[in-house]
Specification:
Order of helices and strands: HEHEHHEHEHEHHEHEEHH
Oligomer: single chain
Bound molecules: 3-methyl-2-oxobutanoic acid
Strand order of the largest sheet: 1-2-3-4-5-6-7-8
Radius of gyration: 20 Å
Number of domains: 2
Shape: globular
Distance between the termini: 44 Å
Amino acid sequence: MRKKITIPDVLVMKREGRRISMLTSYDYPFTRIMDAAGLDIILVGDSAGVVVAGHDTTLPVTMDEMIYHTRAVRRADPRALVVADMPFMSYQTSIEEACRNCGRMIKEGGAEAVKVEGGMNMSHVIRAVSQIDIPVMGHIGLTPQSVHRMGGYKVQGRKEQAERILEDAFAVQNSGAFALVLEGIPAKLAAEITAELTIPTIGIGAGPACDGQVLVIHDILGLCEKYSPKFVKRYAELGPIISDAVKQYIAEVKAGEFPTEEHSFS
Ligand code: KIV
């Protein structure tokens, strides 16, 4: 029986100590395959800007692009909960703009929740959006939209920074978020946050103690050559498989071996 995964289900998973699986997806065919495999949460990440569109950072991604990807994902009718990333500058400038854009992501994109980056500095936004019944997933630690402030994609929360990350985690929870992504922080700090919070934590480069884990689908399938961070595990190498298929196609076209009668109309 295909039971849709909802926000309350995710909260129950934390309470019952059942780990949450989350991966990014940006389109219809990947979502169909990944959902049939039994994933709990699909994140339409703004990492689309890097792994799909080829930008160096997530900063250029627009609302319209995120809505396009989210609609494609929703067309696969996934059982998994669909969370969409709010792109840079779609929620930072004012509460009004944040509510309007998060509303668009639900209404036009079909997302079931949104994700925003930031801790104490974004608690007013998380509170306002949650209060209009749009479920919000927080994201703290290494927040890719803050790449310039951080001076690169660097681990956050080491030594004296740890207290600040803990405060961010509480600020996100107390503002009404239903879950929290912890990215690029020491495993011990993530374990402490996970033990303290009542909402689930989803880790990426945050060690094994989080309530769930998330990775970028292109990274785990070996489709992103640009860089492979330490926290990524490659579960498949699809690059050579795609390349071999394309080479065989080219060779058969050049040799006149494709199409045959089998692929032709009488
Ligand atoms: O955009 C993204 O893919 C993300 C996750 C990797 C957490 O924010």
